[in-house]
Design brief:
about 375 residues; binds iron/sulfur cluster; alpha/beta; 10 strands
Length: about 375
């Protein structure tokens, strides 16, 4: 009998597949113009909160896309009002993941009023960012995004930056850190890789080079003396080692399917947005079933059984208790197998061992 793990889930909502930019490495491919209806959005919110109220009663909504800011502010006003007016006593948090290119003043004000944090994709300084993250007519977006970040900062909105690491910008890793430090941005990095389903010829970063970049970022973060910024990988890995508690990074969780799902603009529920449009991994549709029922779908139950215990390479791994086999999408998309290790396995080993060595040194000599 399957043991269904009971914990609250974070809900990534994609209210549209459309985007107002055209970045070189976008994994969405040709974007259809689907927009979520307000009725569906309200059903997703109430079903999710009701599901989590039977678990640990905390719901995090991550508004993603496509580009979420292209929906009208009124759409989000209804969402935030609905959750704050109808579910008193439940802990509900919203965050928006955006390209930051067109952040309207009224949307920023609404975020401020509702304590909504914003994570913005920005690939460092303009000279690199504008070579890869551009408008549909090929113009750079850095200037507009920086102005919007400034507006959000002045308003006092909680901000984070997400950077994609490619084979090209690896050489700018230190510039990126300095740029963020000068601007007071906390940030995380994310590698662009090719897999069985998507190709990023010329941009993909190899695990070997990505490990070197991660170590460099870790050391830059670790050796800061003043005006501290939070950087990942750095803060998260250190927190994981020191506290032995799980961290928010999904790929280092025990099994991400205990705590994560993604819902697209048509109400289809997937393990995460990386599985979008892959019928084989669809859990169900929120228009047709209650979330409670969708979460018992055979495919979710199968994914929940993924464990480093069953992955031969992981069995004797020195850092298994931290990594747990890594990301299941990486395993499936690179090796076509659920119980395979993450293709970034050597990155996790190298980085975690490096972090342990740094911590050891600092405890010994300080
Ligand atoms: S499949 Fe990978 S990217 Fe998706 S939630 Fe799980 S660990 Fe994260
Ligand atoms: S680092 Fe590699 S071998 Fe170790 S648990 Fe993670 S995926 Fe498995």
């Amino acid at each position: 009998m399957t043991c269904l793990k009971e914990s609250s889930v974070n809900i990534l909502i994609q209210p549209t597949d459309s985007c107002n930019m055209d970045c070189s490495y976008c994994y969405k491919g040709d974007k259809p113009s689907n927009f979520m209806t307000e009725d569906l959005m309200l059903k997703i919110l109430s079903d999710s909160i009701s599901y989590n109220s039977n678990r640990n009663n905390h719901t995090l909504f991550i508004w993603h896309g496509g580009e979420p800011s292209i929906l009208p502010t009124n759409f989000y006003q209804k969402a935030f009002d609905f959750t704050s007016n109808n579910f008193k006593g439940q802990k509900i948090t919203h965050t928006i993941q955006t390209n930051g290119f067109r952040l309207r003043e009224d949307l920023l004000d609404l975020c401020l009023q509702n304590n909504v944090s914003i994570s913005i994709s920005l690939d460092g300084p303009a000279h690199y960012h504008d070579r890869i993250r551009f408008t549909k007519d090929g113009k750079g977006t850095h200037d507009s995004i920086m102005k919007n970040i400034e507006k959000a900062k002045i308003k006092g909105i909680e901000l984070g930056i997400l950077m994609s690491i490619t084979n090209d910008n690896l050489v700018y890793i230190k510039d990126m850190f300095n740029f963020c430090k000068q601007n007071g941005f906390s940030y995380g990095i994310n590698p662009i890789t090719s897999d069985l389903f998507s190709k990023h010829d010329g941009l993909e970063v190899s695990p070997e080079k990505y490990l070197l970049a991660c170590i460099e970022v870790y050391d830059l973060w670790f050796n800061q003396k003043d005006d501290l910024i939070r950087v990942n990988p750095g803060f998260g890995i250190t927190q994981l080692i020191l506290s032995q508690n799980r961290i928010s990074d999904c790929f280092l969780s025990e099994n991400c399917q205990m705590t994560f799902i993604s819902i697209d603009s048509k109400g289809n529920v997937y393990p995460c947005n990386r599985f979008d449009n892959n019928e084989q991994y669809k859990f169900g549709n929120i228009n047709e079933q209650k979330l409670e029922e969708i979460m018992k779908s055979p495919i979710r139950l199968k994914l929940l059984k993924r464990s480093a215990e069953y992955i031969s390479k992981c069995q004797n791994c020195r850092i298994r208790k931290y990594c747990n086999g890594g990301c299941m999408h990486h395993a499936i998309s690179h090796f076509n197998e659920l119980n395979a290790p993450d293709h970034l396995c050597d990155v996790y080993i190298g980085l975690i061992e490096h972090a342990m060595m740094q911590l050891n040194k600092s405890l010994t000599f300080n």
